[in-house]
From TrEMBL, chain A:
This is Sugar ABC transporter substrate-binding protein. The keyword Signal applies. CDD domains: PBP2_TMBP_like. SUPFAM superfamilies: Periplasmic binding protein-like II. Residues 1-21 form the signal peptide. It comes from the Bacteria. Keywords: Signal, Transport. Belongs to the bacterial solute-binding protein 1 family.
From TrEMBL, chain B:
GO terms for cellular component: plasma membrane. Keywords: Membrane, Transmembrane, Transmembrane helix, Transport. This is Sugar ABC transporter permease. It is a multi-pass membrane protein.
């Protein structure tokens, strides 16, 4: 159904961009060329396909560099640090880079570009979900990029198994655990799983952390990962994984959790909604069509955001600004949504008036989750260190250590990393 | 009348001729400086700064602070401990098993050529490919290793998924991969041994064990030292297998110096601190190498 709707949407996209061309001078930077660095993903594939449309519309030459996430991040950091000017526009994972890159002054502030004549009148920045708009702003209100992705954690559960067992989508941690216990048949069907691998696990641990009202840092930016709430959260998380997940969960990243679920061996897991496309893919998933999506118990939705940003050293910032407008405008965004990329524009999710969206089984949950989304991680520079440090504590708890002992050490290490980052 | 001295003082060699040989050495010298000395010196300089790639402030000279931090960095010290542990056990096993394999392969038996070629397969395969095969085999649920273990009545192991068994599992993989390399060098050594001592030993009625212990092993020592040196240096630098199999996990249970170094520089961007660790690692590898070479010389002297 979704695929069938694509040609129609493609056509309407062409019409919309055509209409924009009349009211806004897309040709202002014609003849210039820019370099865009993005991370390989379904989104970058679409961007690559659509690039000729932008080049035709604006007359700007775009050279696109697509790399895996880790390599892209390293290349950017090393390029920027050495004063390079090889990248004009880059895909920035705000969760990891926002604080670090803004401190280093690597983002071009966009506020001064968002004025008549430079920005397409139909662009509508306010159309982005509030959480996404906040995510691209630093503490002093500087806008450092335009959001293109908002990933929120939701609960994936097996509708069919739940119906057989007379269960409903859990609305509290206790209900979630009861359902896991009821559906758990070790070796065949595991009740609940989430990431166990160091660093990766910090993301899914955010759910219990928020559920027990814990925080990574307090108001003054000091570490709080060993307070009573965090200890309770770790007790819960490690307890659930030890009781209801496969024994090797300690090495599970999202791909292993997802694989288990797709292979009909897992009843529930929490992770980013971006994986729903793979869950519903009949070619690779045995459970396509049998899956329910729910906002996490306690109306929680830890979120991460990505933005297209301009390098502060970019040679041609105006051309770069035209590009990021085009790649995040309403029509393009709706096209992304149709192709399963989780987008942060409200207008793309107008469910009542938009028939094709009703065919996406997770659309409503995503929409509801985005309304209550809170950032998964705090705005501090040593995010990677924090994820490793807390990740190690989670692994220790999974291997039988006391949660408090593990988190006491994590607290010390995280505080050191925070202090180091301030120097 | 004075007679001229029998041996006239040699005429001084002109400067240009004395410099000519230097000229020939110069390209090699320059290359060494550019390729080795400069990066090394630059890393050494960096190790005295607090350079963090993403820091807005320029790097500051902080003297020995990085090295002092290194000494109290639990994670660094633990990773060093693991590196040494893996090296000692892995190389030790490889030496013993490699010599045993070489002794077997040195005998004449049907299909020896085929077996020798097959035995070399692990050495020529890429470490990442081997790692992926072992990750599949060591999966606690679906892996074939646990299938065999359970078939033999032994409980399932967690292999690389438990803090307790991850290092032995990695040592197993490294040993599997590199034992044939030691075998190859030992075989080459065996091929060069003279026949006379063996004939003499046979006449004296020495047991095979006595022959091996008193004749083969001492004569094989020079070859084995080469193998030991190569393997020790390689294992101290081991990265790909561990990264591909465990990424240093679970937690940090298999994080070696190299893995921690990678995390420090490319995830945390702490280049200055990472540089100090590079220098420390270099010193250790160099130290181990020198000790091994010295030991060899001593052994040769005593032989």
């Amino acid at each position: 159904m979704v695929r069938f709707a694509l040609p129609v949407l493609g056509l309407s996209l062409a019409l919309v961009t055509g209409a924009q061309a009349q009211s806004f001078n897309w040709k202002a930077q014609s003849g210039k060329s820019i370099t865009v660095s993005v991370v390989k993903s379904p989104w970058s594939d679409i961007l690559q396909d659509k690039l000729p449309e932008f080049e035709k519309l604006s007359g700007i030459q775009v050279s696109l560099s697509v790399l895996p996430e880790q390599q892209a991040r390293q290349k950017l950091a090393i390029d920027f640090a050495s004063g390079g000017r090889t990248v004009d526009v880059f895909d920035s994972s705000l969760t990891v880079e926002k604080t670090r890159f803004s401190q280093a002054g690597w983002y071009e502030p966009l506020n001064k570009y968002m004025v008549a004549g430079k920005i397409d009148p139909s662009y509508s920045f306010s159309d982005f979900f509030t959480s996404a708009r906040n995510a691209v702003k630093t503490k002093d209100g500087t806008i450092i990029g335009f959001p293109w992705k908002a990933d929120v954690q939701v609960l994936y559960y097996r509708k069919d198994l739940f119906a057989q067992a007379g269960l409903k989508a859990p609305t509290s941690l206790a209900e979630l655990e009861a359902a896991a216990a009821k559906l758990n048949v070790p070796g065949k069907m595991y009740g609940y799983a989430a990431r166990g691998l160091k660093n990766a696990n910090a993301y899914t641990f955010t759910f219990p952390l928020q559920a027990f009202k814990g925080r990574w840092v307090d108001g003054s930016g000091d570490a709080t990962v060993n307070n009573a709430q965090a200890i309770k959260a770790l007790d819960w998380y490690a307890g659930m994984l030890k009781k209801y997940a496969p024994p090797s969960v300690v090495s599970y990243n999202w791909s292993e959790v997802l694989g288990l679920f797709q292979q009909d061996q897992l009843a529930m897991f929490n992770d980013g909604i971006g994986f729903a496309v793979q869950v519903e893919d009949k070619a690779s998933s045995k459970v396509a069509g049998k899956v329910g999506y729910a906002v996490l118990p306690g109306k929680l939705a830890p979120a991460t955001f990505n933005a297209l940003a301009i390098s502060s050293r970019a040679a041609n910032k105006d051309a770069a600004f035209l590009f990021i407008q085009w790649a995040t405008n309403k029509a393009f965004d709706k096209y992304l949504v149709e192709n399963g990329v989780t987008s942060p524009r409200q207008s793309s999710w107008q469910l009542a008036t938009n028939k094709p969206l009703d065919t996406i089984p997770w659309a409503k949950t995503y929409f509801d989750a985005l309304k209550v989304a809170k950032p998964a991680f705090p705005d501090v520079a040593p995010i990677q260190e924090m994820r490793d440090i807390v990740g190690i504590a989670i692994v220790q708890a999974l291997q039988g250590s006391n949660s408090k002992t593990a988190l006491d050490q994590a607290q010390k290490d995280f505080q050191t990393a925070l202090t180091n980052a301030k120097q | 009348m004075t007679t001229p001295p029998l041996h006239a003082r040699p005429r001084p060699v002109p400067l240009s001729r004395r410099l000519t040989p230097m000229l020939f050495v110069l390209p090699a010298l320059l290359l060494t400086v550019v390729v080795i000395a400069f990066p090394l010196a630059y890393t050494l300089y960096q190790s005295f700064t607090n350079w963090v790639i993403t820091s807005p402030n320029p790097p500051k000279f902080i003297g020995l602070a990085n090295y002092i931090e290194l000494l109290s960095d639990r994670r660094a010290l633990q990773s060093l401990g693991r590196t040494v542990l893996i090296t000692v056990f892995s190389v030790g096993l490889q030496m013993v098993l490699g010599v045993m394999m070489a002794l077997v392969m040195n005998k004449h038996f049907f299909g020896r050529g085929l077996f020798r070629t097959l035995a070399l397969f692990p050495v020529v395969a890429t470490p990442v490919a081997i790692s992926l095969i072992f990750v599949t085999m060591m999966n606690p649920q679906s892996g074939v290793l646990n299938h065999f273990l359970q078939g033999a009545g032994l409980g399932p192991l967690q292999w690389i998924y438990s803090e307790k068994s991850v290092l032995p599992s990695l040592i197993l993989v490294d040993t599997w991969q590199w034992t044939p390399f030691v075998m190859l060098i030992a075989l080459a050594g065996l091929a060069t041994l003279p026949n006379e001592p063996y004939e003499a030993a046979m006449l004296d009625g020495a047991t095979p064990w006595q022959t091996f212990w008193s004749i083969t092993l001492p004569m094989l020592m020079p070859s084995l030292f080469v193998a030991l040196l190569f393997r020790a240096i390689d294992t101290l630098k081991l990265f790909d297998t561990i990264y591909a199999m465990t990424q240093g996990g679970p937690g940090t249970a298999s994080e070696t110096v190299n893995l921690y170094l990678y995390t420090l520089s490319f995830n945390y961007f702490r280049m200055g601190y990472a540089s100090s660790m590079v220098i420390a690692l270099l010193a250790i590898v160099l130290g181990v190498t020198l000790v091994l070479i010295r030991a060899r010389k001593l052994a040769e002297k005593n032989a």
